[in-house]
Write a structure and sequence with these properties.
Shape: globular
Number of helices: 10
Strand order of the largest sheet: 6-7-8-3-9-10
Number of strands: 10
Strand content: 25-35%
Distance between the termini: 35 Å
Protein name: ABC transporter ATP-binding protein
Organism: Prauserella alba
Order of helices and strands: EEEHEEHEHHHHEHEHEEHH
InterPro entries: AAA+_ATPase (IPR003593), ABC_transporter-like_ATP-bd (IPR003439), ABC_transporter-like_CS (IPR017871), BCAA_Transport_ATP-bd_LivF (IPR052156), P-loop_NTPase (IPR027417)
Number of domains: 1
Radius of gyration: 17 Å
Keywords: Amino-acid transport, ATP-binding, Nucleotide-binding, Transport
Largest sheet: 6 strands, mixed
GO molecular function: ATP binding
CATH architecture: 3-Layer(aba) Sandwich
Bound molecules: adenosine-5'-diphosphate, magnesium ion
């Protein structure tokens, strides 16, 4: 469904993403692992048009999206749930969802909101509460819900478990699994290696702007020391370039 090939992104002289290729398919979670500064967030931002790419291609069912404007890419069916969630703290849960529904046909907004509340009943209970008063895990569910309001076919998730209480990490990642199972293609960056591997189907490891390893999560679950070794090397390499 989503095919990212040979993506390049630079910040002035900093060549942050150097030929990254990634894929995401309906009902599957592609997990992207990598040390801090490896280029994971930059890749996600470039895929959804928030960061201009210097080269490569981003195809959704064969249609080239690279160079299209972010709102157009959302309409094509790709939603980003950014690092740090970026919900509107002073607005209510319901208002945050309405903002997520801005690309939806107006007559669909009610049904889409109900679907989000069915998926995350806690959000229904808190619908009139300012979003800033939700727990970290609830805010992450709201961020997922806001993205789901756009009826995405592909969701890009940037570190959804970041900053969550340990008990909440599995709950949030299980909801990512449920989102994928409902037919959406998920491309997820995660720092939490074990919890990410537990729900993922495919894994790509990024170091210094390049994919250094891709494989089935099933295999890596059996021997996650391979992943840790690669991430350890990647972290050292990242420090070396910093
Ligand atoms: N807005 C920016 N301006 C300049 N350099 C940036 C910017 N954002 C990220 N970078 C640099 O690009 C590289 C990749 O960053 P990022 O994609 O955020 O990594 P990751 O998400 O894997 O931690 C890093 O070297 C980082 O310092
Ligand atoms: Mg990042």
């Amino acid at each position: 469904m989503l095919d990212v090939a040979e993506l390049h992104v630079s910040y002035g002289p900093v060549h942050a993403v150097r030929g990254v290729s990634l894929a995401a398919e309906a009902k599957r979670i592609t997990l992207v692992l990598g040390a801090n500064g490896a280029g994971k967030s930059t890749s996600l931002r470039a895929i959804c048009g928030l960061q201009p790419a210097g080269g490569g291609s981003v195809r959704l069912d064969g249609v080239e999206l690279l160079g299209k404007r972010p709102h157009r890419i959302v309409r094509e069916g790709i939603s980003l749930v950014p690092e740090g969630r970026r919900i509107f703290a002073s607005l209510s849960v319901a208002e945050n969802l309405r903002i997520g529904g801005y690309t939806a046909v107006r007559s669909r907004v009610g049904a889409l909101t109900d679907e989000v509340y069915d998926r995350f009943p806690i959000l229904a209970q808190r619908r009139d509460m300012p979003a800033g008063l939700l727990s970290g895990g609830e805010q992450q569910m709201l961020a997922f819900g806001r993205a789901l309001m756009g009826e995405p076919r592909v969701m890009l998730l940037d570190e959804p478990s970041m900053g969550l209480a340990p008990g909440m990490v599995d709950t949030v990642l299980e909801s990512v699994r449920a989102i994928a199972d409902s037919g959406i293609a998920v491309l997820m960056v995660e720092q939490n290696v074990e919890a990410g591997l537990a729900v993922a189907d495919t894994v790509s490891i990024v170091a210094r702007g390049e994919v250094v390893r891709s494989g089935e999560a099933e295999q890596l679950r059996q021997d996650s020391s391979v992943v840790h070794a690669l991430l350890g090397e990647a972290a050292l390499a990242e420090e070396g370039t910093a």
